[in-house]
Design brief:
- With 299 residues, this protein is mainly α.
- It has one domain.
- Helix content is 74%, strand content 0%.
- Helix 11 runs antiparallel to helix 13.
């Protein structure tokens, strides 16, 4: 029973990431006109400073040396940096090479891929309700993406590179999330190091590909909010959740991010409510409950 309670607690902690990611769109709109990779550099820089502050406070209280959090095997660094930076690199490449609605829908395959790939992990199994819940969430996310864009999908051959980048984005994050389970002994504090390297790589891409644009005072607050929440704490709690919680349930729950994001945009007057939103809500919530059936029964 203690093991089941710990797994449930870890799943709920990981679910905090989904709540934080729901604020991503709203906060990002407030950072304009900052270009994408510059925003990656700024927000992940804030996330690294957050981790550094935590390590410093812990060290002052007799905790582990700061550098110990960075002494990880090469495979851990490759997975962590590849997951965090790789996802954002492919995502922004996709948005630049294909219509946003198409790229976003393809990229949102990652929660379903997590559900499917998790079957390859030791001690995990895949049942029909896991797949059905993930597919329901995908359809719900598809309704949200097309609804928010004000139209339907229009896949065309000239956007092939963008579609491939979006697919790489989905595979990158799902692989990172599932493979993190293989490194369960690595503490989530190591994510702070991954954020630091991701910030540097974001800065490098910015200097190569983008002009520099600085936000106004409100935009700086949004950058800080992003670095503390959806681009900061979210990755630490997600790491904890996928390593110790119900990874299939987390994959299905992740579809709540675009739903909650849309609800926030409506609340702040940047989107309109509709029956499409209600259907998407039913699909996403129903799919999450179905995929999380095992965890709910244990709880």
């Amino acid at each position: 029973m203690a093991g089941a309670e710990h797994r449930l607690r870890a799943t709920l902690v990981g679910g905090i990431a989904v709540l934080l990611w729901a604020t991503l769109a709203l906060l990002t709109t407030a950072t304009q006109p900052v270009p994408p990779f510059q925003l990656v550099a700024l927000t992940f820089g804030v996330a690294f400073l957050l981790a550094l502050a935590k390590w410093t406070i812990a060290r002052a209280g007799g905790g582990a040396p700061i550098l110990s959090h960075l002494r990880q095997p090469a495979a851990v660094w490759a997975l962590g940096v590849g997951g965090l930076f790789g996802y954002h690199f492919f995502y922004f490449t996709a948005l630049g090479r294909a219509p946003a609605v198409d790229a976003s829908l393809i990229a949102y395959l990652w929660p379903l891929l997590i559900v499917l790939f998790s079957a390859l992990l030791p001690g995990e199994s895949l049942r029909w309700w896991h797949v059905a819940g993930g597919v329901a969430g995908l359809f719900g996310a598809g309704l949200l993406v097309t609804h928010n864009a004000g139209g339907g999908l229009a896949f065309r051959a000239e956007f092939g590179l963008g579609y491939l980048a979006a697919l790489a984005c989905a595979f990158t994050w799902s692989a990172y999330s599932v493979l993190s389970r293989r490194f369960g002994q690595v503490p989530s504090d190591a994510v702070g190091g991954f954020c630091g390297v991701t910030a540097l790589l974001g800065l490098l891409c910015h200097l190569i590909f983008e002009p520099t644009r600085w936000p106004d005072a409100g935009g700086w607050l949004a950058v800080l909010g992003l670095g503390l929440g959806p681009v900061g704490a979210a990755f630490f709690v997600w790491d904890y959740g996928v390593k110790r919680g119900d990874i299939k349930a987390l994959g299905a729950f992740a579809y709540a991010a675009p739903l909650l994001s849309t609800l926030l945009l409506i609340a702040f007057g940047r989107a309109a409510a509709s029956w499409t939103l209600a259907v998407a809500c039913a699909l996403i919530v129903g799919g999450a409950v179905l995929a999380g059936r095992d965890m709910l029964r244990r709880g």
